[in-house]
Every structure is written in C-alpha cells, then in structure tokens.
Amino acid sequence: MSAIDTFFALTDEPAAGDNLILSSGLNVFALIFIGTWIAIYQLRKAYKNFVFRPFKTKRTRFKVSVMIAVQMLIRDRDDLREKRIYMTKYFLRKEKSSLSGREIVQTIRYYISKGIDTRGVLRFVRKRFTQDEKTQLIDLLVDLGYYNQQVNSSEMEYLFRVASKISFSEEELKVIIGVRERYYNKTRRQVPKEEGQSEVEKNLLVLGLDTAVDFEEIKQAYRKMVRRFHPDRFVRMSKEEQEMAHERFTEINLAYEYLERRFN
C-alpha cells in the first residue's frame, strides 16, 4: 500500500479520542438539560409556596375575611362599635383557641384605618376558599348589613359585587337575604322596643327553650339545634328542603346572637 492509500485509510476511521469527545459532549448536554429542568421545577414550586401557601393557613384566611367584612362596616358607620364587637365574637367562635380576642380586635381596627383595596383579596377567595368558607363569609356580610335591621344601597351593592367576584351563586345570596329580611320584618312588626322581654322569650323558643335560663343552657340548646339543622345534613334532600333547612339554621343563629348580646 502506498503512503497516500495509507493516509486515506487512517483518516476514514474515527479516532478513539474523537468518540470520547462526542460521548462527553452528549453527557454534558444531558446533564445541562436535566439540571435546567430540575431548577425550573424547584423555582415554580418555590413560587407557588411563596404566593399561595400563606393563603392556606387559618390565620391568613381570618385576615382575608376581616379585610372583606370591614368594607361592609364602613358602608354604614351607624352602630360601628357594636358591629365590631359582633365581629370579634363571631371570629372568636369561629377560630376558637387559635386567635386571642385582643388580636382579633387589633386586626379589625387596623383594616378599618388602612382602607384596603379588596380586588386582589377577592380573587384569592374565589380560587382558594371552599364553598362552605364562601358561604360563611357571605353570611357574615349579610349579618353585618342587617345588624341595624336595614341595608342601604351601598351595602346591598357590595354584597352582590362580592358574591360575583368570588363565584358565589346570586340565587343563593338572594335566599340568604330573603331569610334575613323576613326575620327582621317580623321583628319590627311584632316586637315594640318596650316589650324587650317578649323578644327574649321568642328567641328562646327558636332554640327550643320556653323558660328563662342561664347562658350556659342557651349555649347547649344552640349547639343541639345547629347539629340538627346544619345544611350539610340536607345536601341529598330536595332544593325546597335545603332552603327550609337553611332558613331554620339562619333563624337559630340569629336567635343565639340576640340572646348572646342580652345575656353577656
């Protein structure tokens, strides 16, 4: 074989070093790809935890509810102090031992003075609150609106705006409002101010009590009635039965709240 033939024969076959370089290059590319994918995954996970995880905590859900409820308060500043007391007692019952009364009072005062824009908060409620949590929030807003037995146009507009923003059924909101309206209309017709004692007796009857009792007995009767008429027990019933149960459940809560104010 001539020298030229030998040269071409050698150059036609890849050297062992070339194969090693090619293999190393592929390995490096694979490592870069896998490392990049892991980094992106971890960054996305960290972002989700940073943005959304706080809204899964009980404390932050409480603050979100206060932000929204405070906007209802400032739409009618009549009886503002009494409404704040009502809100404090409501959250003490709801949060039980996780929050102190002092912390709840300070949070309510802070958001009243701060003037929070609730648009972003309502988006989080829509995405992160369960349907039961949304219902509890709407119930609280309606209770605050009807605290002085009448709702002004600004309060009513806010109720429907909140319901729309958090994807809460407008029909269900109308049912809740209708129950409160009937209750307070009945109260205004039947119970003059000088007949406060008959109002106490009427609310005791709602809880299944017919005589004057101490507040501990009222609490026991309230818990018994709530268990009996809780909406969760009627989810498989007809729509009419569900509405009747919801109305009865609402009357029980309103009766208890009235008696709580009178006895405490």
Automatic annotation (TrEMBL):
Transmembrane segments: 20-43
A Pfam family annotated for this UniProt entry: DnaJ
Keywords assigned: Membrane, Transmembrane, Transmembrane helix
Cited InterPro entries: DjlA_DnaK_co-chaperone (IPR050817), DnaJ_domain (IPR001623), J_dom_sf (IPR036869)
PANTHER family documented for this protein: CO-CHAPERONE PROTEIN DJLA
Protein name according to UniProt: J domain-containing protein
Coiled coil, from the record: none
CDD domains registered for this protein in UniProt: DnaJ
Organism: Wandonia haliotis
Record PROSITE patterns: DNAJ_2
Location of the J domain: 202-264
